[in-house]
Amino acid sequence: MKREAIYKSHIEKTINCPQCGYPLPIYFKWTKLVQCPACKSSIFLEDESVKLIGKSSTLSPEPSLLTIGEPIIIENKSFLPLGKIRYSYGRGFWEEWFLKGESNREFWLSIDEGDFALERPLNIPLPFKDFRELQVGREYGKYIVTEKNSAECVGFEGELPREIKIGEVYEYAHLSKGGASLVTVEYQNGNMRIFVGEWIDPFKIKRVYS
Ligand SMILES: [Zn+2]
Which domain, by its residues, includes 190? Predict the structure, then answer.
């Protein structure tokens, strides 16, 4: 009877793919971008309108702990993986999984080989004004910069809460105040997006159906 307690994936609405007509269930209230699983078109959602923004290539399948649409549990909290973005940093890539949490909350699980981080968007005050001034190893207030880099978005699948562009490069930095805590700052076109969370042990990620 375990299944009764799990996350119920509520469909917010269903749209039809403007390219092929495939009915696409949308599971997140604020989804902006969805890839049609049938024809691979990228579809942008805005208010009540649905706009085709081209075809995206299929990501080469990679073994992963997660599957779109299959709920997981991390430390007694349930999440529904709805989409993923793949980023390249030259020799390799990593993936950012968009998870819908309880109460329609947005979470991101970043999987970079053996490193897993679970974060949520949160506008906390940061002790610096300009992303560009950050240097790895330097302290800013209670934070130390542990990584600063740029990455190219190479593709996506599923549904996402924001628009992304394939081929777009964005900069990011990881800040730590010790322990497993993590703040990630993404920087693009002069704007910073802040995510707060922590590094997690992948063994803490449990599949609901296995
Ligand atoms: Zn389609």
Answer: 2-125+136-207
Residue 179 lies in a domain: yes
Let me know the angle formed at the C-alpha of 181 by 180 and 187, rounded to the nearest 5 degrees.
130
The pLDDT, as a whole number, for residue 1 is 39
Number of domains, the chain: 1
User: Would you give the end-to-end CA distance of the chain in angstroms?
Assistant: 15
CA distance 69 to 94: 20
pTM above 0.85, yes or no: yes
Q: How close is the Cα of 96 to the center of ligand 1, in Å?
A: 23
- Report the mean per-residue pLDDT for the chain: 90
The single-letter DSSP state of residue 13 is E
For residue 34, how far is its CA from the centre of ligand 1 (angstroms)? 10
Distance in Å, CA 19 to ligand 1 centroid: 5
How far does residue 33's CA lie from ligand 1's centre (Å)?
Answer: 13
Specify if 130 maps to a domain.
no
C-alpha 40/C-alpha 152 separation (Å) is: 20
C-alpha to C-alpha distance for 107 and 196, rounded to whole angstroms: 10
Using the mean position of ligand 1's atoms as its centre, give its distance from the Cα of residue 84 in Å.
18
- Bridge partners of 172, per DSSP, are 149, 186
- For 98-121, the pLDDT digits (tens) are 999 988 899 999 998 889 999 999
* Residue 138 CA from chain centroid, whole number: 27
